[in-house]
């Protein structure tokens, strides 16, 4: 007997998901992929538009320096947060 899609306890015991659950999983993965692509595409467009709008100004001439500094700061901020989290997890276990 195939369980309904609203019965998660019996779904855990199955070796293969029912078709409607598999379909919904693929839809979620597809939507997430499109969302990630659109988000990155919009970021690149905004950077290109910022360079076009600021062309000829001091900001436009050194846009790469400013963007590099921003991204470098973000990378180090995220890296320190990640390393700190790992150290806390390892020391508490």
**Rg, please?**
23 Å
What percent of the residues sit in helical stretches (DSSP H or I)?
A: over 70%
> What is the 3D shape?
flat
Low-confidence stretches: none
Q: Secondary-structure element sequence?
A: HHHH
Helical stretch count? Answer: 4
Question: Residue-averaged pLDDT, rounded?
Answer: 76
From the N-terminal CA to the C-terminal CA, the straight-line distance is: 43 Å
* Strand segment tally: 0
What percent strand? under 5%
Helix/sheet category:
mainly alpha
Largest sheet: none
What are the salient characteristics of this protein?
93 residues; mainly alpha; 4 helices; flat
Walkthrough of the structure:
This protein is mainly α. Helix content is 80%, strand content 0%. It is built from 4 helices and no strands. It has helices at residues 8-12, 19-53, 58-61, 63-92. The chain is flat and about 65 Å long. The mean pLDDT is 76.
Task: Set down the secondary structure blueprint.
Blueprint: H1 8-12, H2 19-53, H3 58-61, H4 63-92
Brief summary of the model shown:
With 93 residues, the chain is mainly α.
């Amino acid at each position: 007997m195939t369980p309904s899609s609203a019965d998660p306890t019996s779904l855990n015991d199955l070796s293969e998901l029912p078709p409607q659950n598999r379909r919904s999983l693929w839809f979620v993965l597809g939507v997430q992929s499109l969302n990630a692509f659109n988000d990155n595409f919009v970021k690149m467009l905004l950077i290109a538009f910022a360079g076009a709008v600021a062309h000829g100004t001091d900001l436009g001439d050194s846009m790469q320096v400013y963007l590099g500094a921003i991204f470098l700061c973000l990378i180090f901020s995220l890296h320190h947060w990640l390393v700190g989290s790992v150290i806390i997890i390892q020391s508490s276990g």
